[in-house]
Structure formats: C-alpha cells, structure tokens
UniProtKB/TrEMBL annotation:
Residues 7-19 have a biased composition (Acidic residues). One of its GO terms (biological process) is chromosome organization involved in meiotic cell cycle. Signal peptide: none annotated. GO terms for cellular component: condensed nuclear chromosome. This is DNA repair protein RAD51-like 1. Keywords: ATP-binding, Nucleotide-binding. GO terms for molecular function: ATP binding; ATP-dependent DNA damage sensor activity; DNA strand exchange activity; double-stranded DNA binding; single-stranded DNA binding. Residues 1-20 are annotated as: Disordered. It comes from Gigaspora margarita. InterPro entries: DNA_recomb/repair_RecA-like (IPR016467), DNA_repair_Rad51/TF_NusA_a-hlx (IPR010995), P-loop_NTPase (IPR027417), Rad51_C (IPR013632), RecA_ATP-bd (IPR020588), RecA_monomer-monomer_interface (IPR020587). It comes from the Eukaryota.
Length: 291
C-alpha cells in the first residue's frame, strides 16, 4: 500500500520564490548532470543542501569532506557553476533590479522603518550595537514576530525553524559575547578574528544564497585612546574591529533616550544616508516614540 506525500501548505513555487528573491536550486539537481547520489548525500550531510552552496564555497572547504576527492570536487563545482544563477559578472542595472526584489521586515516603529528605507533589508547583514539596555534584544524579539507577517504587512511570511516552512530571518544575539570569553588576551586575538571572519562569512553566504535577512547584535567597549568614533558615543566603540565592519551591510548604533525612548543612528550603510530617529520600547515591543 503506497502513501502519497501530503503537500505542505506553506511550500512556495519557483515563480513565488523568484518574486521574493529567494530562489535556490536543491543539490539533488546535480544528479541529472552525472554526479553520483552517494556523493550528493555526503555533501548534504555536511550542510551543502543547494547548488548555490557548492558554487559559492571555496574548493578547500569541499576537500575536507570525507570521500570527496579533488577530481570529484572539480567536477561537482563545474556543474554547480552551470546551474547556479547570479554567477560571474553583473551589470549595475542587473544588481539594481535584483536588489529591488528584496523585501523589508518592519521593526514595529514607523519612524524607524522610514530611517531604514522600509525596515530591515533581506539578503544582507544588519548589525545593531550599543550599551546594555538600549533595545538591541527587544528589537530582535520584535523582528522575530513581525517577520511572520504577510509581505504586504511588512513581514516575510516566514515561520519558526522547527516547522516545515521556510524562514526569512536569522538573528544572532550577540555575535561577539562568546568570542570575548573563549578567546581572551592579545595572544589569541588573531585566532579570534580569523574564526569570527569565517563565522560572518557563513552568515553572509546564507543571506546571499537564500535571500534571508540576517540581524546580529554587538557589544561595545571603551575606547582606549579616548577618541570618540561618532557624536554621542561616550568613548564607546563596537567590538570586532574591521572584521565586523566589513562584513556588515548596515550598522545601527542604539543609545538610551528619555524614559523608555531609545535613539537609533545609522552608523554605516552603502545605500542609506546618515540620520537618527527616536523610538520606544513598550509592552508590545518596539513602537513609535512617546512624547
């Protein structure tokens, strides 16, 4: 007696995925191009589930997989390059059209959304840093809820990872806390930065490959030389140095305001002008500022 697989209600067609900038090709497609099923299973067991993941990964990373020889890696990547879209050079017009397909996840505050050009952008890494009690985790909690709203309402129609549905938001809170305890002292600084760079590269690959929004929070540290990086920073600077600065697409600095109000400043962004707005933290999460 055979049983047919019941369709998942939240599955997306290729056309719907392409409209939302989240199209990707499952790694099983390589079997039609002469790649053995056993090799595909080895790749899948090691976290490579899409053709894009194979195409974007460095050759030496694939060589670490047991049972995958150099000849197999060359053949697998050659076929992946043929299947994976967005490989090679792109014109500025093509990049603009691709970025217009990205969606924006509402933050819960209309003024903060306006500052960010619509909300938290998908397909990129947004870093949120500041002192304690400035609203970093509250913003993450609000985004975890609003990302499940329909796209028309400022969400990404995502769901929690434990469901069979896709997810459109990845939050790391905080990205540097464990590195500060596991790698201590200047003697381990180089190892810490190298591992942090690999971790951030993995986050960026997920954003590029699946078109999800990646939000990371970061802590601050007192500036030893006493030079303020920007007005209102009170001799504080984000941890991670140039490694996080180069990996993050948009960097947001949060600081305390009056009462429950908080101030968000765009510290760095390739497409947004510098500016700041005031928002508030209420019972429902992030909301517009209170008078």
């Amino acid at each position: 007696m055979s049983h047919e697989k019941e369709p998942v209600e939240d599955e997306y067609t290729d056309e719907e995925q392409e409209e939302q900038g989240m199209i990707h090709t499952p790694i099983s497609a390589l079997e039609e191009f002469g790649i053995n099923a056993s090799d595909i299973k080895k790749l899948s067991d090691n976290g490579y589930t899409t053709v894009q993941a194979i195409a974007f990964s460095p050759r030496k990373a694939l060589l670490t997989i047991k049972g995958i020889s150099e000849a197999k890696v060359d053949k697998i990547q050659a076929e992946a390059f043929k299947l994976a879209p967005k490989m090679g050079f792109e014109t500025a017009t093509e990049v603009k059209e691709r970025r217009e397909e990205y969606i924006y996840i509402t933050t819960g505050s209309s003024e903060l959304n306006k500052l960010l050009g619509g909300g938290i952008e998908s397909g990129s890494i947004t870093e949120v840093f500041g002192e304690f009690r400035t609203g970093k985790s509250q913003l993450c909690h609000t985004l975890a809820v609003t990302c499940q709203l329909p796209v028309d309402n400022g969400g990404s129609e995502a769901a929690a990872m434990m469901t069979s549905s896709r997810f459109g938001l990845l939050i790391v809170d905080s990205v540097t806390s464990l590195y500060r305890t596991d790698y201590s002292g200047r003697g381990e600084l180089a190892a810490r930065q190298m591992h942090l760079a690999k971790f951030l590269r993995g986050l960026l690959r997920l954003a590029d490959e699946f078109g999800i929004a990646v939000v990371i929070t970061n802590q601050v540290v007192a500036s030893v030389d006493g030079n303020m990086l920007f007005p209102g920073a009170a001799d504080k600077k984000p941890i991670g140095g140039n490694i996080i600065a180069h990996a993050s697409t948009t960097r947001l600095y949060l600081r305390k305001g009056k009462g429950d109000n908080r101030v968000c400043k765009i510290y760095d962004s390739p497409c947004l002008p510098e500016g700041e707005v005031t928002f508030s933290i209420g019972l429902g999460g992030i909301e517009d500022a209170k008078d």
